[in-house]
């Protein structure tokens, strides 16, 4: 046990495979006394903290789960005992996931906090599809939004569509029909759209389609959470884009894939 | 030299410190025959590819630099010789930086392409400030946009402001006065704003201010490229926020920092 002043590391576990952890994350895990493990993080991550006490604090949307206030108390209590607490969060800790509240609690307690960045699943989803999130032929940026209304309220889909940025929508699978309908009011029906479930993990699955078929195709193919929904012309640059999408952008001789393309990770 | 079929890895070097590379990136570098090095990547990264031939292909905005078509030819030529080419890009390869064009060229040549994600500087900037990009009290997402007009045209600042997402603006330092003015037409003058130069690197510097003072404060304090500009209420959650910002959000007894807060990395 460490008898110095404790500290808390907010550690980004990335999208799944341990290979996608940073060197800095691996070092922090090796030095941890206590690991608080989010249930969207790969559970094998605890092998990198063999000496640490591991506490699972899963908080999946809609399920019975560890209340946020309890997680915050745990972090504070162990760190005030002088321990190095590593709070493991899926993706990047600073994109969704309530890091803001946790940082405020820890600062109010006078505790040192270290933040270790990681790969957010929207980036892993783009890698899975083999596309840039911001192909300059199509857009000047990308917007990451959550459709988890309890946490953040309903995004302004009209405003988001008007930006012409690629949209990376997190926590949207339960409302994919409503999201697609809202976007269809502002974007062309044939706007390329994709779903990547478990992006960057060994169970990764991906689907490429168009906005007006997005909900039916994703639900029909059995896609569920956790998944990232990508919408925008940049997504249509994927080599896996269905033939009608490749024709739309003027390519000849592409692979004739079916309109609904579902691919499992190798 | 590898006599099998070659391949190309688009490798994300992250924002600067080698500690922020992923394990997957380190493995790819160790296996590289040829490394094509972007000049926004930390040059020390070549120590991780000791056996590779290193070619510097910097392409800084506005400077004399290696043309994109030449870089694409180099990648293709070496890979077609059977070599493992690692194309190192700063940040995440799939956010800005022309990965889309490179992927298309490599696929047309029938080459295998691997993408290794990394930490984009907007995430490192948020870590530097100690804020969530998407504090749920303030927003439902974050938009990453480039202000590099030659590459992507002018973003629709009105539409971006209307999304109420946090804005992470890349390549904007040369036009920071115009960007701030455009946003001021749609956002309150006291909207928190920050600049983080060399985010995630040893030369990191950060500035916290408000939108109507953003350009004057950043230029007055000598901030330049490469830097990320962050705009939005989530940014004001930083413990380093100036006293007037802490008063604005109703906190008492905060540190009385000057309105212009410039902090160098330790």
TrEMBL record, chains A, B:
What biological process terms from GO does the record include?
Answer: methylation; siroheme biosynthetic process
The chain's coiled-coil residues are none
The protein's annotated pathway: Porphyrin-containing compound metabolism; siroheme biosynthesis; precorrin-2 from uroporphyrinogen III: step 1/1
Q: Which PROSITE patterns match?
A: SUMT_1
Which Gene3D superfamilies does the annotation name?
Cobalt-precorrin-4 Transmethylase, Domain 1, Methyltransferase, Cobalt-precorrin-4 Transmethylase, Domain 2
The record's annotation in SUPFAM superfamilies points to: Tetrapyrrole methylase
Domain Tetrapyrrole methylase stretches: 7-214
UniProt keyword Methyltransferase, yes or no = yes
The UniProt keywords, alphabetically, are: Methyltransferase, Porphyrin biosynthesis, S-adenosyl-L-methionine, Transferase
A GO term for molecular function: uroporphyrin-III C-methyltransferase activity
Q: What is its EC number?
A: 2.1.1.107
Q: Which family does it belong to?
A: Belongs to the precorrin methyltransferase family.
Protein name per its UniProtKB record: uroporphyrinogen-III C-methyltransferase
Q: Origin organism of this chain?
A: Paraburkholderia sprentiae WSM5005
Show the taxonomic lineage.
Bacteria, Pseudomonadati, Pseudomonadota, Betaproteobacteria, Burkholderiales
